[in-house]
Write a structure and sequence with these properties.
The chain has one domain: Alpha-Beta Plaits, CATH 3.30.70. The protein contains four helices and four strands. It has a four-stranded antiparallel beta sheet.
Length: 96
């Protein structure tokens, strides 16, 4: 399944840990605080646990949205596309 991870974290050190964790799970950075990637359900469960243990639950937030490839194909883009150099050709081709 495709997975979106979107976060709002004020502390630079924590934000960096979350970013590295997302990259370690094979997600690609779409924007500064937005990651997208293809993960299995076990990886999704692990990632959610790690992220929950990483952030300050009282002030930080992370949205985790599983999405099927069919649903992603229905998604639209309004405005500028993300930096294509940060995303593999495979993921970019899923958008366009």
């Amino acid at each position: 399944m495709l997975l979106w991870v979107i976060y709002d974290i004020s502390d630079d050190k924590i934000r960096s840990k979350v970013s590295k964790t997302c990259l370690n799970y094979g997600l690609y950075r779409v924007q500064k605080s937005v990651f997208l990637g293809d993960v299995n359900s076990n990886a999704l469960d692990e990632l959610k646990i790690i992220l929950e243990d990483t952030i300050n639950l009282d002030i930080d937030s992370i949205y985790v949205f599983p999405m099927s490839k069919d649903e992603l194909n229905k998604a639209g883009l309004i405005g500028q596309a993300f930096d294509k150099e940060l995303v593999s050709d495979e993921i970019v081709s899923k958008f366009f």
